[in-house]
Amino acid sequence: MNAAAEKLHETKDIDVSSFEYKQKPVFDFIKRLFDIVVSFICIVILAVPFLIVSLCILIEDRKAGPIFVQERVGKNGKIFKIYKFRSMCADAEKKLEELQKFNEMDGPVFKIENDPRITKVGKVIRASNIDELPQLFNILLGDMSFVGPRPALPKEVSQYRPSDKLRLLVVPGLTCYWQVQKNRNNVSFDEWMRLDRKYIMERNVLVDIKLIFKTFFFLFKKSGC
Predict the structure, then answer these.
(1) Confidence of residue 17 (pLDDT cuts 50, 70, 90)
(2) pTM of the predicted protein model
(3) Are 225 and 190 contacting, i.e. CB atoms less than 8 angstroms apart?
């Protein structure tokens, strides 16, 4: 754990007395149906672009495959394998330890603005969030949804406080309140967790639709379209 994370987790767990979790079977059914239909359609439509991106990744660096597979924590702590287009060098995981001192996030999360492990193709697909598109297969399989808290690494979850673990009550998602923040990497870990708890309490069809549209707007604005 880095120094910032140690400092954060030495403090008393934050007050979540206002948090309330409700079962929503009808919403869950509609959400899952939407996820299956839309993810399948997107996979079919994006088949050729997927192939092109994969080839670009392989042309730049053939030391590893175009798809990066990593374990993440899903609903109720279930471990699943997440899929992404590889945006970093083949030995990125090995280089992580030496980069920990440059971590710009508080809490048990690692992020730096100019990560030296990112490839040239990786910079392009990350800027447009194309690297996340293989997660459509995770959505189709049911490990993820279009909307929900971003899935965390097992080592991050092992450092969670009880209040942080509340985000594991629902299926993780491709986008969320944190994802559509203007400067999300500047959002504190506590605020990130608060936004996830906010979604869990407020979740309904309208909230999901709003977040999906906000995500598209955010991506178009970010790319200058």
Answers:
(1) confident
(2) 0.83
(3) no
